[in-house]
Specification:
By secondary structure, the chain is mainly β. The chain has a single domain, classed as monomeric porin ompg (Porin, Beta Barrel). Helix content is 7%, strand content 44%. It has a twelve-stranded antiparallel β-barrel with strand order 1-2-3-4-5-6-7-8-9-10-13-14. A hairpin with a 2-residue loop joins strand 11 and strand 12. The longest helix is centred in the N-terminal third of the chain and has 20 residues.
Length: 338
């Protein structure tokens, strides 16, 4: 089995795509689409749905995109712009996924459930977590998010324990162009005293998205990347880590259109996530997982919106490194966009 003792490869790939995306945004904010978009006269009618059952995305009348946001206009653009959902002429959606950090402004309610099966612990057999959040974007640059999480433990003997903790997330949009997106994410999570966690978690990192239709002509394929540093403040057990880093590279392929009945914007996801302890008694240890998953909404049927803004997402974390803290981790998410 391959060993993943260092985060070098993950950091290198993330840095490459982040640099390429920033360079593309700086050089060509509104680059041409992979396929030319025909201009329709007032007498023209948009063609019917494409042959694969998808809406004819290149022919859909797109609202005028707001001005691009880049690092060059960070202080002068976006702060006074009203938040709005963004659509791309390529039909590639930029989505909030299972593990990779979200890279765009959003207004949503999100609830996550996950269950760790057969935890590698002499005292705990299984662990269950439920968390929820409300995110609100004030404009195109700034978003705040309130989170809450609650965990239950299933011990190997005796009675289980449970406890909850609140958190706060801030997101700042650094880049938002037709092909690329990048944000700075900040997070603080209070200690979970009921479960014996006495440290406050402070996190910061970058998250990004690239529409691969612009890079390679891949139809409705998005590449996502993120890295997040965690710092643990406060008293901890002997040998407890004080910092770690998580990094993720994800590919997502959208198969159906946004209004397909029952399976709107059906998207297949493969997330490649790793987390490395930077210090403590296990400093240098890395957990690597692969998470196949799927995301969709209920779409539209005969002119009735069944649930275009209600999303279901699920997947399974499979550990592929030598270090395996559990056999498998099952995830289920519900998202309501405002």
């Amino acid at each position: 089995m391959l060993r993943y003792g260092r985060p070098t490869v993950g950091f290198l790939l993330i840095a490459i795509f982040a640099a390429c995306g920033a360079a593309r945004a700086a050089v060509d904010d509104n680059g041409p689409l992979p396929s030319p978009v025909p201009e329709l006269s007032q007498a023209d009618e948009p063609p019917a749905a494409a042959g694969d059952g998808q809406p004819g995305y290149p022919y859909l009348v797109q609202p005028e995109r707001p001005r691009d946001l880049t690092l060059a206009n960070f202080f002068s653009a976006g702060w006074d712009d009203q938040w709005a959902k963004q659509e791309r002429p390529t039909g590639t959606p930029n989505l909030a996924l299972l593990r990779v950090q979200t890279n765009f402004m959003e207004r949503e309610f999100r609830a996550n459930y996950y269950a760790e099966n057969n935890v590698a612990s002499p005292t705990t057999r299984n662990l269950t977590d439920f968390d929820a959040l409300i995110a609100w974007s004030f404009n195109r640059r700034l978003m705040l998010e309130i989170t809450g999480a609650y965990q239950w433990t299933d011990p190997r003997t005796g009675l289980g324990e449970n406890g909850g903790t609140p958190g706060l997330v801030g997101r700042v949009q650094l880049v938002d162009t037709e092909s690329s997106s990048c944000s700075l994410n900040l997070k603080a999570v209070a200690p979970n005293q009921e479960l014996g966690v006495s440290q406050t978690t402070l996190s910061y990192g970058l998250a990004g998205f690239e529409d691969l239709a612009y890079w390679f002509g891949f139809k409705r394929v998005g590449l996502y990347y993120s890295f997040l540093f965690d710092s643990f403040a406060g008293p901890g057990a002997a040998g407890a880590k004080r910092s770690d880093v998580g990094y993720d590279i994800t590919l997502a392929k959208t198969i159906t259109g946004p209004e397909t009945p029952l399976l709107g914007h059906l998207t297949l996801i493969v997330e490649n996530y790793a987390q490395t302890d930077l210090d403590g008694s296990h400093g240098g240890r890395t957990l690597v997982t692969v998470t196949p998953g799927v995301r969709f909404n209920l779409g539209k049927a005969e002119g009735i919106q069944l649930g275009k803004d209600n999303w279901i997402m699920f997947g399974t974390d499979i550990p592929v490194s030598d270090y395996k803290p559990w056999n498998a981790l099952y995830r289920l998410t519900y998202i309501k966009n405002f």
